[in-house]
Specification:
The chain is 66% helix and 5% strand. The radius of gyration is 50 Å and the shape is rod-shaped. The N and C termini lie far apart (125 Å). With 232 residues, the protein is mainly alpha-helical. It is built from seven helices and two strands; from the N terminus they run E-H-H-E-H-H-H-H-H.
């Protein structure tokens, strides 16, 4: 019987070596006894395998390699599937968050519009209640002014009026003829805002706001000029 020397087979385990030994023993017509520990210790060489057994040994080795490759492929596929699932979940979560944020913004904008509309409606009602009286207190005059301008401009307007007339809508400068809350000169200028300019603080405030906006951009612009020049 011809014999072939095979070198370089790495034995994966003592069990695999035992199997190879059994195959060799059967092919040689002798008992299948193999020293697994000795074979495992010298895992780089398996000598004198009978030719008839070589194909079986190679088949066993290739089968093991195929199993290992299949296991690695399965592991890689599992990792890829897990990563794809993680990305998909993250994208879904982000999409839901974006949609929720957009909805919240829409609702907030709607609330602001509703509140602004209610505020304007309330302002018109309050102003209507104040206008048309025969006389006005300083508090009532200031309340009218607050209703007629942006909140961040009232203090600047108030600073000017406090210096010019002390919030007296009938204040008259005997020397110059300036009249009213904003001391228009002459007072008759305020007729452009209403024929009741002498007795209605709302008309005087309207005219004063138009003047400050046209000449200085805003009441606060007018107040900055007044501070530097003591007039506006």
């Amino acid at each position: 019987m011809s014999r072939i020397s095979v070198r370089g087979f790495a034995v994966a385990s003592a069990t695999a070596v035992t199997t190879v030994g059994a195959v060799v023993g059967v092919a040689a017509g002798q008992p299948a006894t193999v020293n697994a520990e000795a074979t495992a210790a010298d895992a780089t060489t398996i000598a004198d395998i009978p030719a008839g057994a070589q194909a079986q040994v190679q088949t066993a080795s290739l089968t093991q390699q195929a199993d290992d490759a299949s296991t690695q492929a399965d592991t890689s596929a599992l990792k890829s599937a897990q990563e794809a699932a993680r990305k998909a979940a993250a994208e879904t979560a982000q999409s839901k968050k974006d949609a929720a944020d957009q909805q919240a913004k829409k609702e907030a904008d709607a609330r602001k519009k509703k509140e602004l509309a209610a505020s304007r409606s309330s302002s018109r009602t309050d102003l209507g209640d104040l206008v048309g009286k025969s006389s006005y207190s300083i508090a009532e005059t200031q309340a009218i002014a607050r209703q007629m301008m942006a909140g961040d401009q009232f203090q600047c307007f108030s600073n000017i009026v406090s210096h010019e007339s002390g919030w007296n809508y009938r204040a008259t400068n005997a020397g110059s003829g300036a009249y009213g809350l904003v001391q228009a000169l002459p007072g008759s200028k305020m007729a452009s805002a209403g024929s009741d300019w002498q007795t209605n603080p709302a008309t005087q405030i309207k005219w004063g706001l138009n003047y400050m906006n046209d000449r200085y951009g805003s009441p606060c612009g007018a107040w900055s000029f007044w501070q530097a020049n003591s007039w506006y």
